[in-house]
Amino acid sequence: MTPTDAAVHKTAPPTRAARTERSDLTSSRLRAAFLFLLPMMTVLGVVAGWPLVRTIWLGFTDANLVDLSVTEFIGIENYYAVYDGEAFGLLVDPEWWNAVWNTLWFSVISVSLETALGMAVALVLNLQFKGRGLVRAAVLVPWAIPTIVSAKMWSWMLHDQLGIINELLMGVGLIAEPIAWTANPDTAMWAVIMVDVWKTTPFMALLILAGLQMLPGDIYEAAKVDGVHPVKVFFKVTLPLIRPALVVAVVFRALDALRIFDLIYVLTSNSTTTMSMSVYARQQLVDFQEVGYGSAAATLLFLVIALITTLTLMAGKVNLSEDSK
Amino acid sequence: MASVELQNIIKDFGSTRIIQGVDLKIEEGEFIVFVGPSGCGKSTLLRLVAGLEDISGGDLLIDEEVVNKMSPKQRQIAMVFQSYALYPHMSVFENMAFGLELAGGSKEDIRRKVMDAAQILELEELLERKPKQLSGGQRQRVAIGRAIVRNPKVFLFDEPLSNLDAALRVQMRIEIAKLHRDMQATMIYVTHDQTEAMTLADRIVVINKGRIEQVGSPLELYHRPANKFVAGFIGSPKMNFLPAEVVELLADGVRVKALDSGSVVVPVEGSQLSVGDRVSLGIRPEHLAVSATGPLSGTVEVIEELGESHFLYVRMGDGELITVQGKGDAKARRSEKCNLQPVDAHLHLFDAGGVALPLLQQHEDKAKALA
Ligand SMILES: Nc1ncnc2c1ncn2[C@@H]1O[C@H](COP(=O)(O)OP(=O)(O)OP(=O)(O)O)[C@@H](O)[C@H]1O
Ligand SMILES: [Mg+2]
Fold first, then answer.
1. Does A233 contact B at CB distance below 8 Å?
2. Which of A96, A142, A245, B367 has its CA 20 to 30 A from that of B102?
3. Interface ipTM
4. What residue segments make up the domains of chain A, in order of their start?
5. What pTM was computed for the model?
6. Whose CA is nearest to atom 7 of ligand 1?
7. Do A225 and B78 touch (CB under 8 A)?
């Protein structure tokens, strides 16, 4: 045995031991992590995974609430089928597409308004003034009220005969006779949008405010010394710097808006002028008892939202990587 | 280039008076340095001049015009912040050009101004970079460049170098001195750093608790501090103060006896003193030397060797710890008794209220000759 060999032999075993020890450590950590995650995964699987899978499955059947035991697999007929040269199914149902467009229209308008207003509120709340804490709390109130409650409240306020809104508007002479805000096809969607904006602007404001508070204060003093106009400072400094926070806020809100159900259902029930994808699916499932067809609609809704989310996130990523260049 | 005049400037935050009536006249092209302990109001005073804070009382004049109510832009000042305050999402070029864009100059004009500044500060290679891709010194140069391009009447600097390491600080200090010489601009500069203050300033303003303690050239403050505060603040290491008693009033000064030690003659005008008065004897560490016959005696507690010089920390009989600075290596040993000999011409005497007694004229001349 040469001295070198001896050295190798002396040093090698501890190294090996250390390595196994480390991998032991890693695997035990992984095991612990898995154990901690297990309950969560189980719950998610039961409350989210299983219903989703089941909904997708039901979408391929002719299930009906009258008797679920005679359910049969019918392939994609809920989506598209041709009988006697005439096309049937969701993909050619004008009411479904009406619901899709309603949902998109509602989402785009309400999220844009909420972003603009939320930004304005956040800018005000970001200023130093007396009683700021109180105002911040007060602004959050509409968001803290459960949707059903605030929707019901607004539906009474918007009521054509008893509503305070008509009374006020007539009182100041803006309108001559009461308007059926939620029943009139011209105003129904706008009524829904207005209530949603009222309710969700605080959430947007809060997310944007969090972004604003991350900004360094000294650059604003520098801009002041340089004599840069506040409006220019807003567009050239504030906006670019809070854009990441803004994108996150918009994505959150858009996801929420695309699933809109409770507000529309409470305010306008099943009216086609405001029917969203969720309302459409509910109508098929519950009112018409068409579980199969309704499930197909729910599945499509899921796909539409997944698609839009993916697109938004991809667009966001592209922008973000441009930023870091 | 402009003169700046502060007339009894006052600043209150709520009910606390932070700046307590400051009078100061700054000449055109002068380099003024504000020094003072932390929290004394240096930054506040600078921000008042800048127009970032409202003035609570008194008048601020730039070029003999009252500017109390004017915005920073109208005052035509430029400020360099300690934190650089660069716009993180803009390139170096955009950072420097941002303040110019509104001024209405043509694109070509702006480009030329920025390029000129970039050349002065050697930033040409970095114009396309974002602030986070720059080193601290480069960022500070960009911040200075942003001030230069605006061609302001007055430059304000709030501790611009304090985030830099020692070597870079020296380099930037020299660059700022050069900049001042080249531009001949009025500059007000806040710093904690003794060396920056001594080397850059035409005049140093020593501030304490929102008041000016003394204004003067660096050497004036060093040789003739007006009071104990300034004496202790200017000069590093700090001046030693020994409690002492007046024993004799002489024609060429005042003989004082430090408690528990021998006596020394301080060349000051002592007409307001009488024998037996309690006074404070001020001796700078560099004006003390170990000598067997020295009148002050104590025990060496700590020795610090710096190579080219050394510090002895000597515990006097009455419990005071005093610092002695000597050239080269220390000869004294720790825990040994030693006697110290002050340079008489450089002694300072402060009365019970901390006010310096005026130096006698002939000794002042002698001190100058010695210095
Ligand atoms: N906006 C403010 N509101 C209330 N008090 C303030 C405000 N700004 C400063 N002060 C107080 O004014 C005093 C002076 O502050 P300033 O920042 O001018 O000190 P400084 O001399 O620059 O100190 P440093 O050397 O630590 O920077 C401090 O006591 C500080 O607490
Ligand atoms: Mg300060």
1. no
2. A245
3. 0.83
4. 16-51, 95-289
5. 0.79
6. B13
7. yes
